[in-house]
Structure formats: structure tokens, C-alpha cells
Write a structure and sequence with these properties.
3 helices; 5% helix
Amino acid sequence: MRSRLFRMLLPSLLPLVANAQLQVDVTQTPAELVQNVLLGGGVTVSNVTFNEGSASVLSEQAGAFSGNSNLGLQAGLLLGTGDVTLAEGPNDSGGDTQGGGNFGAEDVDLTALAGFSTNDRSVLEFDFVPSGDSLSFRFVFGSEEYNEWVCSGVNDVFGFFLSGPGINGPFTNNAVNLALVPGTNVPITINTVNNGTAGSNGMAETCDAADPNWTANSIYYFDNAGGTTVQYDGFTVVLVAAAEVICGQTYHIKIAVADGGDTALDSGVFLEAGSFQSSVTVQPLLGAGMNVNDSTMFEGCGPIPFFFIRSGDTSVTDVIQLVVSGTATAGVDYYPAFPSELVFEPGDTIVEWPLTVPLDADGLETMLISVQQSMTCSGMVLQSDYTFYIAQPDPLEVVTTDINGSCGQTHILSPTVSGGIGDYRFNWSTGETTPTIMV
């Protein structure tokens, strides 16, 4: 089951669809948000600050989000260039600001990334000590600048600036930026990740200067026009920030977002609850596909690509223990069953475990995977828990309209098709395969 595949996985090319609405709570201080919301396993945090001041004071620029939405993240910490409650849906405005423009402060690191002066910064910083050899967390970046201000004189921006032992970068404290377009060194901004076209107020040349390959980055973007759960006009798919670190050493991270080039139209970065971790170097992920939606697998199509991804120091042998529980039953709701142990030999980065999830009469089922690993440097056995879902797709429905016609008349039959997953084909009794036919 070993694999030496080096590929980039997209855990959420299609954000989770739901009818509920995003909820944002600003009743916790930035320090409480770090400890109570953001932190996962294997990380000890100290010296939390917000906008270079106390993190023990409430701020409208920092809050906790929750609720089913089309972000692809169920809960977490939200930093914004304005009042973060603006992010609550529905998307009923093409460009909105709530509190933005009143903060004014610039961030020099974000200015360097954006290529424009920055304003309304929201900057969360803290020291941390990892108990493993890697750091990772999941995030989504969203903005009201999409889509009309893409490639214009504004460029909202965010960054994850990591500094500490073994790191030598161009930013403050010799930090490096972890908020990058996957597989590149290009920072994620309005002008580098978007729908691939210049907005009504922009010119393509502006985005060309930010990243010559910017149009290809549209695979990491979700257009939220008409969205019912989130206000932002667009946002990225769920992405992962990761870095190698040295176990037991003290590092510093600066998580920041700002308006670029103006003080209007808010932006925000969503950090998944419990995902800031250094507990394990192996993470289970679902590969992208029509039968996968973030952490949900749909029955009836397969096999579904299921991966275990190793990061950090891959030059050693790692033995990972797996404990699988939940309401889904191996051999019935999915197969084959997961092994109790995974072995990554030196150089291995991916173990692929294709799953088949047959169609059955059960409702929504859960699959809980606990990844346990012995951390050599700390002498600890650390565990991270992941939840996946098995769901039935909406039934395929075909709706037609009765026609009361007279002899000699011509009519067009045009059925409305909904539900199901993936592609479908038409097959009329006449042998035609077009979506409509004339009779």
C-alpha cells in the first residue's frame, strides 16, 4: 500500500452546500479564541497579542464562526478587515463594509505581499512550542472585493508569517509566509486567486504582474454570487498551510489580513477550529471528485480516493496507528476496512486507500479516524481525530410539462433534471441523446 506519488490534493474543490447560515460570535477575546477555538493537539501557546496590543480585549475584527455553510469549514476563528459579523449571509450585497476604514493601521509585511499600501489590519500573533516536527492548519480566505475589483488598484491580502529556529525568510523576524497558492511561492491575494478573469474595474495586466499564471488559480476559487449562507462575494476553497518545524523549539506566528489599496469592502480569513496542530505528521484527506464534497463521501459511486498524507521530516520511518469508529460499519457501509497500522518508509509521502461506499437505505453515517503517533523528540504518543461522513446523494428527478397539442403542430420537449451527482446523459425513445427534442 506504499506510494511515492507527489501530487497536490484539493480537500474541498466544492464547498459544502447547506441551507443554514454562517454565525459569527464576537464575545471571546483574541486570546480566548486562540486557546478555545484555534488550537489542536501538540502545540503549547504563549504571548498572544492582537494588533501589537493586548489580546485580552474584545475586538470586532476577531470572532468565532460556526454553523453549516458553503465555506467547507464547520467552525473556527475569523479575522477581518472590518466587523467580522459582516460575514454572516446571505450574500445580498455586491460590495459591503462594516466597520472597515475606521482602523487605519498598515502592516508592512502585508503591504509587501499586496504591492499596495494596506489598511484596517487585523493581526493575531503568538509564540508556540510544537511537540512534533510539522505545523499545519486549514483555512479559507474570502472578500467583498470579488469579482468586480479583481486586477484593479486594490488587492486585499492576508498572510501567515512563521519565524523561529531553522527559518530564514524576507519578512519581519526573518519570517516566511505560509499562505501560498498550492505548489508555488505566490501569495494568495485578490489578484492571484479569483475566477480567472479581470473584474469590471480591473485590467488583466495588473494580475499578470502579480502572478503570470493567475488564471490557472481559479481552481482554488468559489464564486459565492447568490449564496445564502455567507456574505462575502467569493472565497477560496479549503486550503492547508503547513511547515516543517523542530520539536520542542519556540516559534512565532503572525496571522494577518488587511485591505490593500483602499479602506473599503471587507475581507476575512477563516481558520478551522482545532486545526492549528503539530500532533501528527500524517493527515487523512479525501481526494477531489464528483462523489466527494469536503469531508463527505456520497454513496453509489466509487472507488473514492482516500489518502493519508505525511508531512514534515519524510527521511525516517514512521509507524502510524489508526483507530476507526463511528456509525459507519466497515464491510457494510464502506470497504475495504482500514488497517490498524500504516508504515511510511523513508521518502514515502502518500498512502492511498481507495474506498467503495455502496448505496444503501441508511441515513447519514459518520466515520471517525484517530491517528496516533509516537513523537520521538517529546516521548509522547499524540492523537488527532478526524470526522468523515457518508451520505446519500439527492435522488435524480426529471420533471416534464404535459403538452396538449394538435395534429401537425411542432413542440419542443425540454425536461428539467435535478439531484443526483456527477454527469448524466439523455436517451430518448427515438434514439436521440440531446437535452431537448422537437416532435
